[in-house]
Design brief:
The protein is an all-alpha fold and about 100 residues long. It contains three helices and no strands. Helix 1 crosses helix 2 and helix 2 crosses helix 3. The chain starts with a helix and ends in an 8-residue tail after the last helix.
Length: about 100
């Protein structure tokens, strides 16, 4: 059971690290002018749903990137609350919803 907790914690840390690097790379592309018009919200939203919503939201404020995008400013906190709720439910139940039979 402890191994499952460790794997889940490492997964959350990896997704959050990837989320910060994704925001940083998109910001760098937009500043350099290389990917003008290529920075879509799809990767950010998918990464947020997978568990990186909090780090995307915080890194957007720290890097001052896409703060005026209303979709991301409303959607990221909603997904973050959902992520936190699912993590709490998973830890409280002891991940028993994964066990079949």
């Amino acid at each position: 059971m402890v191994l499952l907790y460790i794997i889940f914690a490492v997964y959350i840390l990896a997704v959050n690290f990837y989320a910060v690097m994704l925001v940083k790379s998109q910001r760098d592309e937009s500043v350099d002018g290389e990917g003008k018009g290529k920075t879509g919200d799809g990767k950010l939203i998918l990464t947020a749903i997978l568990g990186g919503a909090i780090s995307i939201y915080v890194s957007m404020f720290i890097m001052k990137y896409r703060i005026k995008n209303l979709l991301l400013m409303v959607l990221m906190p909603v997904i973050a609350v959902l992520n936190i709720y699912l993590c709490v439910v998973a830890f409280r139940s002891g991940f028993t919803f994964f066990v079949v039979g």
